[in-house]
Design a protein that fits this description.
Largest sheet: 6 strands, mixed
CATH architecture of the largest domain: 4-Layer Sandwich
Strand order of the largest sheet: 11-12-15-16-18-17
CATH superfamily of the largest domain: Metallo-dependent phosphatases
Shape: globular
Radius of gyration: 25 Å
CATH topology of the largest domain: Purple Acid Phosphatase, chain A, domain 2
Helix content: 10-25%
Number of domains: 3
Number of strands: 28
Strand content: 25-35%
Distance between the termini: 72 Å
Number of helices: 10
Length: about 475
Amino acid sequence: MTDRPLERVAKLMAARGLCSRREAERLIDAGCVLVDGAPVVAQGAKAAADADIRISDAGQHLLGGRATVLLHKPVGIVSTQPEPGQTPAWTLLRAASRRGPADAARERQVLADPQTQNAFEMDRFHAETVPALRRTVGELGDVPLFGVGCGDIMYDDLALYPEYERGVRATGVPFFSVVGNHDLDQDGRTDEASTRTFASRFGPTYYSFDRGEVHYVVLDDVFWHGAGYIGYLPATQLAWLAADLAHVERGRTVVVLLHIPLASSRPARTGERAGAISEMVTNRAALYRLLEPYRAHVLAGHTHEHEHLFEGGVHEHVHGTVCGAWWSGDRCWDGTPNGFGVYEVRGSELRWRYQATGRDAAARMDLHAPGAEPTAPGDLIANVWDWDPSWTVTWGEDGTRRGLMSRRRGLDPRCVAEQRGPDRPPRRAWVEPVPTDHLFHAPVSPDAREVTVEATDRWGATHRATWRRPS
């Protein structure tokens, strides 16, 4: 009898670089895998982490045969006989592109809604967002990275696509792209016709790929019906996803990237009876069923606010946006600063933070002085953007700990000052602040000189901010 921890043989083989996990499963089916000298006879078989695992001669022969590579080639790469000046697709298949077990530690950045409508906004993207991305890349150091544009790359003017591409190229990081409702050819009469320009630049609108131990799926949940759009996943896409996930081991981490959130808490926050069908995915239950066997995270944008949702067995991350409230200022209408998500992958575990553009990587909140909220004039208010129910938020004044802050639904005070009213904000007067659930109140003593707020996240890290009363 052994007390050594056991893991799936296929996973151990992939971790040791013997072959991919899918290749290991095929070899097990063929009876070509030996563990401590004995053949493995069933999928799901487990072995100790230090077990002797070998591939039989017959298995080596199977691996040594011809390989089929599925390649989503970038625009400008040709799969036919190249003409002078053209780059053939086979040049992308080189040893430097191969990833092994060390690739399990990987970071990525998620850009939700850059949504540039004109040269002024594109200039801001290049002057503010691109340097922030490059700074984050530099801070992360020598870690494998990739980025994702999570939809609404444009604001209807698709002629600006090249300028967006120039910006993300400047980061030195490869980017995947998700289609958003403002990325469409709005003269298209069908859903398929609406994505012709997007597809010509970025490739398919739904696909999947593996990085380390995580399976990533990009979906197109913007359904164009010829005169507008709704949040919807067509049956063809769901059937494709079911076939794709049939090859993914149950229990693995699956990350789904799409534009329109599956769900939203905004109806509850604003008192609406039901959310708009353009603001969430109407048939999301079908996706929940497909993701049920996995540790699933869904990453979305679209709503220009930041929240975490837990519905249907998945953790949905709805991101604050690169453009904030449509480039009208420096924050979304829930008070979340313009910014982007940064995700770290440790094996099969995800960790994340929200990076505010132009702010230090440690920033997690904004503090609003007593008097900023007329209904609670004595309260200091903390807007903790990336809060979820696993966090705790405490406060103290003048060196004395006072305990938990009170979470209350409300409007961000700075958003009220900058966005409320018929003439505000500049250039986007239709923007109005929306209620958020990540505001925290502390009843500050009238003579308190200094208040410190501490927000402890789900991983035990504590983030601090301090307000000092003006002299």
